[in-house]
Structures are given as structure tokens and as C-alpha cells.
Amino acid sequence: MTTVAAYAVPAAKAPLERTTVERRAVGEHDVLIDIKFAGICHSDIHQAREGWGEAIFPMVPGHEIAGVVSEVGPGVTRYRVGDRVGVGCMVDSCHECENCRAGREQYCTGSGMVGTYNALDKNGEPTYGGYSEKIVVDENYVVRIPDGLALDVAAPLLCAGITLYSPLKRWGAGPGKKVAVLGMGGLGHMGVKIAHALGAEVTVLSQSLRKKDDGLKLGADHYHATSDPKTFEELRGTFDLIVSTVSAPLDFNAYLSLLKTEGTLANVGAPEEPVALNLFSLLGGGKTLAGSMIGGIAETQEMLDFCAAHGIGAEIELIGAAEINEAYERVLNSDVRYRFVIDTATI
Ligand SMILES: [Zn+2]
Ligand SMILES: [Zn+2]
Prior knowledge:
Layout lengths: L1 E7 L8 E7 L6 E10 L2 H7 L16 E8 L11 E4 L2 E3 L5 H4 L12 E2 L18 E5 L4 E2 L6 H4 L5 H11 L7 E5 L3 H12 L3 E6 L5 H7 L3 E4 L3 H6 L4 E6 L7 H5 L2 E9 L12 H4 L4 E4 L5 H13 L6 E4 L4 H9 L6 E5 L4
Parallel strand pairs: 10-11, 10-13, 11-12, 13-14, 14-15, 16-17
Antiparallel strand pairs: 1-2, 3-4, 3-8, 3-17, 4-5, 5-9, 6-7
Helix pairs in contact: 4-5, 4-10
Bound molecules: zinc ion (2 copies).
One zinc ion binds next to loops.
């Protein structure tokens, strides 16, 4: 066991404070990672405040981890000391179920995926995330960060990047396809960059036109305000695919009307409350309302290689650990362009 410094939430809704946590000894198939950067994901805040139900405290959030391997277990074959690596939303799963064997570990039906934090590891100990100096992870749940990608802008790709890449690929974003990204925050801005790099014609649907210049600069072809009713008239029947990153309640019937025949509205954000849906919005036009959650390990590696090849990193504001609590407030106020990343050397 190793004691490492970390920033933790001691109890639900309490501010984060500096503390220490124990990391397990490096096992046969484990790598020890010196964490360099950790992104702040909106879901860190949901969990720290128990917005998604009962949580485990103290909690060290952080599932957008970029760092360097500093020790490997005797059975490790994929990584060596000095390798640049990342860890996303999961650190284990059953390895055996149909989904794990198919590379969809995030949908593990055996033991379920083990979250990078706010979960119990197979040994029954709580997992602690990336707001810390070091982490020990099974090499099968670690991905390689290509040399062309700086670690700070790569960190948010481990959650925000894969969360958008997976549905964009699955529902065929590419040349000749009209894709809308709903929401222009940490997730949405990655969707714009990735959909553009995939060759799709990209539209941002955002509440206001406040971030229009950014959206166009990051690769959007069009930008519309959803607060303007004319948007819904003008864009009726336009999109092959809409990816919604929004976690506020939405008028799904209105957004489904923006799809072409047989188009898909894929959700990666989830409102805390159930939503109302008139099923005629799906029947007429044979439309699909779908969901997607992060991506598998192999797909996460594919995403990182794709982003490196296209020069894509997140747009970030780098902060010190002492600024995490303030950063949480700013995320809740949608006051970040577009992802806070913690320089873990400041922990
Ligand atoms: Zn996340
Ligand atoms: Zn499984």
C-alpha cells in the first residue's frame, strides 16, 4: 500500500479538502500511474453532492486522468515505465460477460463496471479517482495517450471525448451526414470537434448565441439558439443525428421534429427527473430515441488515436488544486470554457 495526497469530499455536499488515501500494492497486472492532470467532469459534482443517489465518502472524484507509468506489475505486457497513459470512467469489470468480451466493458452485465471513484473494487475497498498524486489500475483498463497529444488537453478526452466519440461513430457521423450537437459545454465542445473531424456537417444547438464564435472556430458549420422558436421551424426535418449533451429537462418532441426520416436522437446527458414523450414523435418518420454511456476500452484507445491524428484536444482552463471548489461553482454556473483541468502537481 502507498499513501498518496488527494483532494476529497468528506461528506455529501461538503467542500473538497486536501487529505491522503491508500493505493493498493501494485499487483500482477497493475500499473502505478503518476497522475499529471485530472479533468473536472460535471458528473464529479453530481456525485459529490449525491445528486445521483447514495454515494461513498470520503470521495476522491476524477475520471479524466492523464499521467505517466511509474511502476508495472510482473505480469504487465502492454505498458512500461515512462509510458504516457490515461484512465477514464472505469477501472475494472468482470472480464467474462458477453459485453466485456465484446469490448463494451461499460455495459458489463457480470459484476458491472467498477467506477474509477465512488464504487467498490473487487477487494471490497472504495475506489478513489484522479484528484490525487497516483493511482493503481489493472493494465486492461488503461489506455495509451499518443505522443502528439499534450497530457493536459488529453485528460478530458477520457470521459468527455469518448462520451461523444462513441455515439457519433455508432450512428454514422461522417461525410454527407448532418449532425447536431445539443449543448455547448464540456461535452458539447468535444462533440463539435470530433463530428467535424469525422467529416459531418455540424450544427450546434445551444440555448443562446453566446458561444457562437467559439462553436464556429471549433468546427461547427452552423449555430442556432434553442431559445428562439424560429430555430425549430427553420430546422424541421434537418438532421440525421442529434447528440444531446444536456442534463436539464428537454422538450423531446420538439427535438425529434428536427430529425430527418429514420434519424436518431442520442442522449449522453440525462435529466434527473423522468421526461414526457409523445410516442407519435417517434412513429411518424420512424425515428430512434437512443442513449449512450462513455465507451469501451478499445474504443477509448481508438478515440485517442483519432484525436491525436486530427490534432484534437479539449479546450481547457488549467487550475491548481486549491481552486477546485471555486471551479465546481463555476461549472454549475456554466462558466467554463470548456473544461477545468487540475494540475495535480499542486495537490
Ligand atoms: Zn465524466
Ligand atoms: Zn462483464
